[in-house]
Amino acid sequence: MNNSMLLVSPSPHVRSNNTTQRIMLDVIIAMCPALIASVIIFGWRALAVTVLCVAVCVASEWLFEMICKRENTVADLSAVVTGMLLAFNLPVGIPLWQAAFGSIVAIVVVKQLFGGIGKNFANPAITARIVMLLSFAGSMSNFATQNDAISGATPLSLKAEEAMPSLLDLFLGKHGGSLGETCVLAILLGGAYLLIRRVITWHTPVIFIGTVFLFTWALGEDPLTHILTGGLMLGAFFMATDYSTTPPTKWGKVIFGLGCGFITVMIRVFGNYPEGVSFAILFMNILTPYISAWTRRKPFGGVKKS
Amino acid sequence: MSIFKLSGVHVKHCKHTAGQKPERMPVPQTITLPMSMHIGAPAKPVVKVGDTVKVGQLIGEAAPGLSVPIYTGVSGTVKKIDEMITATGMRVQTVMIESDGLQTISETVIPPIVDSRESFLEAIKNSGLVGLGGAGFPTIVKLGADIEKIDTLVVNGAECEPYITSDTRTMIDEGDLVAQGIALIMKYLQISNTVIGIEKNKPECVLAMKKATASLNGVDVRALPSVYPQGGEKVLIYHTLGRIVEEGKLPLDCGVIVINCTTLACIAKYILTGMPLVEKCITVDGSAIKEPKNVIAPIGARAMDLIDFCGGFSEVPRKILTGGPMMGTALADLSTPILKQTNALLAFNEKDATPPKVTPCIQCGRCTEQCPFGLSPSEISKAYKAADGAKLEKLKVNLCMECGCCSYVCPAKRNIVQRNKLAKNMLRQYQMSNKGGK
Fold this sequence. Notes:
A: 58% helix; B: alpha/beta; 4-stranded antiparallel β-sheet; globular
């Protein structure tokens, strides 16, 4: 018996079937309804922007890791997820070179410069969007489309005399806005898929959306309109649930959701920007290490050291 | 009974051999008895090379203090007194016996006279028994504790590891012996309550134990969810009684002792027949075994002998374990002997044994969610990497029971348990150096 063929490794010797790649693939699948909706509402350019963002994200990750002689991780599909999410945060008419710039910022600056997957403290797509908002203010607030039925302004930035789209139109996304954030139906389908596949838990999305609903209602605004607009659904299901930038425990996620909801409403109602989801998530990302420490699970049977 | 359940994982049960009655393997040509198989001082050989020995004869006498005697399960001649390195890397003395195939029983095998707690405990010590659930803690030490404190006996019939079915067969085939063992413990340790915890995936065992203990007072059979690690001592106590064993304390401090069902059956067997612990029922299974079986083998038989009895390998084995896949030890050598606490021998083919590629941690938090003891493995890893002893102490890595749930669920396939073990070492050194400094 050739003993040298025996592998000696530490326990456990059996693992679950889940892999990082599988999780990322599930997120990509969950984003497909929103992608399809964006093409229907905004036209084929929506697909072009998405494909471009994905391609530039993957390429910049691959190039960066090659230059830095790090192991190549594009196969884990996380760059694809970032590319799609970033695209969903952009207006359909964004110049392609600006979208490419945003993709490079998301992957190289926000993710890779901090150590790669799992080591970034801020959500790459959200942070890149904010960078683009500040760098390309004009194109980032230009929501004009080829489709006459879609107004050039987002619902939250409508002037007082302009009519708000009906609740059904808001739900189906037939109005101006970023590529992937308008069709609430598509996002909810994706969110349901993520919940069923146990990629995310219900805590952050429900608390985030619930807080926005209750807080806006308490302030005398229309809560339904608020939760159906401004990229809240996209942010709550796909970006406030990002693993490395949000707390790992249930209570941590609840506090995170509460904070995001609170800040979103403060910015929308009292601040200068029409929507506050991106800033709220980024701000809560920064607080995440503290929230994680406060909400750490108590070891079973642990005794406090006197 | 606790309302809240501790986290755990649903592993594939793979209890292929649960329906098979154990088969006795033919007497192996030689057995090798290590003088140290578990915690405690090694036993001292009382035989010399060339001595004739019979089944049930004392081979290694217990050293003073925490130690347990060792007996032979084959009759024959002592061939060699040697040394070996165990699967966990320890160097131990061994006694090798060449069997004559006759299996003559020693005259020293007579049922002990038990009429009091002292004589009962004396009998337990002489039986050579250790915890047969896998941990191998000397039974005499567990039972010799302060009985005033104990009010409940918890019988561990969970057998939560995949593949292993030796406890299952004990409960089905020797349920009466288990009940007798329970009765003996309850009588001599003056315990009035017993709870038998069995996982729901063994309905025949639940029925068998209910039937066997029907005539005993104060015995409750509980069917528990089949979530790993249901059989972990502290987990079992919490799920059956709702009591928490605190850090640094023993189940004794909550008034409980936990004993494996097979250990109880062996206690009864010894009191009835006088035959000490000399053989085990071992589940041999895995993707590389031709005919998976439950094998009754003498302690000291080589792993290879058991595998030959099961038809040998169906494929080239890539990994062989003693114990279950979640906590078992990988073997480097097929001539490793079966120990007192071994209850499974698993052989896996290339496909099952190839370790998955380790990728970076994505901070998903699954390890933290699934840890039955509420630890934060990802933070422990970070603190270990930073050599932060104070943080490791705060995170209480010393509570880790190395059950494997964290590594099991990790999507990045990281060796979290291994790192926890290293972190525990680091914490011990940190605490020792702190004490020394003061």
